[in-house]
Design a protein that fits this description.
By secondary structure, the protein is an alpha/beta fold. Helices cover 32% and strands 22% of the residues. It is built from 19 helices and 29 strands. An eight-stranded mixed β-sheet has the order 13-12-9-7-8-15-16-22, with helices on both faces. Helix 10 links the parallel strand 17 and strand 18. It is globular. It binds 5'-O-[(S)-butoxy(hydroxy)phosphoryl]adenosine (WT7).
Length: 619
């Protein structure tokens, strides 16, 4: 604890030394002149800006790969790839293997005309080509935009257009559990949608994931000649060496879309030097990383956790990690634990929603596997309820593993509040104490710096606002209480209520919609939709499935509503503002006895009774 306090103090009081020394462990083509941070968070004093390691030039791909190979770790396993299906096998890739893959792809991208600063989209499952694509972009200075494989064609189209990325890397299809996900077909449709809007994708590089395997028949997609190319053909003629583009410390590294309370998802842009140090330092200290560890983070690279704690953080630490393509329940509910046993995983990092779902199956699926290699457990994505924390600690960790509840977000790029396990006692449900004050932090919203300033720097002058509520107890421990804006956290995925609403009103029969979160046993929060139909439409239950499907098609399966609640009228004030507080209370299990507070300012107070009469949980 004393060491933590001393380091914490040093990180804030002498960043030049603290972060400078740490940064110098990496290769800089041009050494930085100043650690920084040089920043302005006060909008009254000009543009908001944050700069780290000014004057320096480096490359993430170099520091994740070449540097490790040069230091003699070329044959160390970087990635154990575990397939969705047990009969589909596994593979191991050394640091040299990954470097070769990345160089070939980087050369192919260059041959295609991709240049420094160009944006490129990646819509891949959790296969080794996914981190390799990210690193290939980083190598040549192209900005990657990874789109999670669960997003729909419309969502992908919007992201392709916003980023103006004319090249997409995808796969034919992939099995997720027992079902195929048609990534190529979805990409084709996304390209069509974008084309209608005047944006043309020039090149689709397709990894043959199911092709030439016994499940080839599961992949169904078309082929646009001249545009589409198989990944293996794309890289075939390329050399296994590729010079890095040396990137300014503040040059863009990647963008990643995330939802807010208003408007379309924003492309959060991360830059090179600060992100690199943030991902490196948190992986090292939060997870107390040691060279002999086997690390397994279950997040998909389509989310920020997969960026910082699958691709970049572990590789900057020369770690050996498991890359898992599948789902925790396939073929059985003990799949995570089987993987941990198989690779002797020592550090395991997952989301509370997964813990709660697996907890339902009892202790036996866990305890029938040998988990004695586990040393440290992490959680991320949402507040963890004490009951799930205790089960994770007792059953998964066998009572001998520390738990790191890591609080952070897409914008910060790396952990903000987390225990440094071993150094401090934990309390179930608390993310404990701040990490060292340091690098990371999204520099802007792609193409919209104003929106960046308004979203994060307008509530508290001179401060960044995460959007979360929090309590601090007498020991200084932080307890995150959830979002304070109209964002819901469904299974650790951030979903803007406005996005779901706009998906619903796009349906021909819908006049208006208001969406709120409600407590959900497994997902943390579920999606509750109040829907007003157009004049003359009948409020029939058969239409509900249609509306759920609508949201699934517009956003993606993970945003599928849990409940549709018919609302011939919505509780609005006389000025027309929807009283969301009332809607949130009506979505609670004990809605009948809820105190709805002052409803006298409602334009029509009787809507409340009408809503109760249409309550989907009415007995
Ligand atoms: C939002 C960020 C962080 C990577 C995954 C999600 C919530 C995240 C915790 C935690 C309580 C948490 C916050 C945050 N959140 N981790 N340990 N305890 N809340 O990234 O999609 O950017 O979402 O997730 O509400 O703002 P994201």
């Amino acid at each position: 604890m004393e060491e933590y306090q001393a380091m914490y103090k040093a990180s804030l009081e002498d960043p030049e030394k603290f972060w400078g020394d740490m940064a110098r462990e990496f290769y800089w083509k041009t050494p930085f002149e100043k650690v920084g941070p040089t920043y302005n968070f006060d909008r009254t004093k000009g543009d908001v800006s944050i700069r780290w390691f000014e004057g320096g030039a480096t490359n993430l791909s170099y520091n994740c790969l070449d540097r490790n190979v040069e230091q003699g770790f070329g044959s160390k396993t970087a990635i154990y790839y575990e397939c969705n299906d047990l009969d589909d096998g596994h593979a191991a890739y050394s640091y040299s293997d990954v470097l070769r893959m990345v160089c070939k792809l980087a050369n192919a991208l260059k041959a295609e005309g991709v240049q420094k600063g160009d944006r490129l989209s990646v819509y891949l499952p959790m296969i080794v080509e996914l981190p390799a694509s990210m690193l290939a972009c980083a190598r040549i200075g192209a900005v990657h935009s990874v789109v999670f494989g669960g997003f729909s064609a419309e969502s992908l189209a919007g992201r392709l257009q916003d980023a103006q990325s004319s090249l997409v890397i995808t796969a034919d299809a992939v099995m997720r559990g027992a079902k195929p996900v048609q990534l190529k077909a979805i990409t084709d449709k996304a390209c069509e949608i974008a084309a209608k809007d005047g944006f043309n994708v020039q090149r689709v590089v397709c990894v043959a994931r199911l092709k030439d395997t016994p499940r080839a028949g599961q992949a169904q997609h078309g082929w646009v000649s001249g545009r589409d190319v198989w990944y293996s053909d794309f890289v075939a003629a390329q050399a296994e060496e590729c010079e890095c583009e040396w990137m300014d410390s503040e040059a863009p590294l990647f963008m990643l879309y995330t939802s807010g309370s208003t408007g379309k998802p924003k492309g959060v842009l991360h830059t090179t030097g600060g992100y690199m140090l943030g991902a490196f330092a948190t992986t090292k200290y939060t997870f107390d990383y040691h060279p002999e560890d086997v690390y397994f983070c279950t997040a998909d690279c389509g989310w920020i956790t997969g960026h910082s704690y699958v691709t970049y953080g572990p590789m900057l630490n020369t770690a050996t990690q498991v890359l898992f393509e599948g789902v925790p329940t396939h073929p059985d509910v003990d799949r995570f634990w089987k993987v941990c046993e198989k690779y002797k995983v020592s550090i395991f990092y997952t989301a509370p929603t997964a813990i709660r779902a697996l907890m339902k199956s009892g202790d036996a699926p866990v305890t029938r596997n040998d988990l004695s290699s586990l040393r440290l457990l992490g959680t991320v994505g949402e507040p963890i309820n004490p009951e799930a924390w205790r089960w994770y600690y007792r059953v998964v960790g066998g009572g001998h593993c520390a738990i790191a509840d890591t609080y952070w977000q897409t914008e910060t790029g790396s952990h903000l509040i987390t225990p440094l396990v071993g150094a401090m006692d934990c309390k179930p449900g608390s993310a404990v104490l701040p990490f060292f004050g340091g690098p990371g932090g999204g520099g802007t919203v792609y193409g919209d710096h104003k929106r960046f300033e308004e979203t994060y720097f307008s509530q508290f002058n001179g401060c960044y606002f995460t959007g979360d509520g929090c309590k601090r107890d007498k020991d200084g421990f932080y307890w995150l209480t959830g979002r304070m804006d109209d964002v819901i956290n469904v299974s650790g995925h951030r979903i803007g209520t406005a996005e779901v609403e706009s998906a619903l009103v796009a349906h021909a029969k819908v006049a208006e919609a208001a969406v709120v979160g409600f407590p959900h046993d497994i997902k943390g929060e579920g999606i509750w939709c109040y829907v007003t139909l157009n004049e003359g439409e009948a409020y029939e239950d058969s239409l509900k499935a249609d509306l759920k499907k609508q949201v699934r098609e517009v956003i993606g399966a993970f945003a599928m509503p849990d409940e549709i609640h018919w609302a011939p009228g919505l509780p609005k004030t006389r000025s027309g503002k929807i009283m969301r507080r009332v809607l949130r209370k009506l979505a609670l299990p004990d809605y009948e006895t809820q105190d709805l507070g002052d409803t006298s300012t409602l334009a029509d107070p009787s809507v409340v009774d009408v809503l109760k009469s249409y309550h989907p949980r009415k007995k």
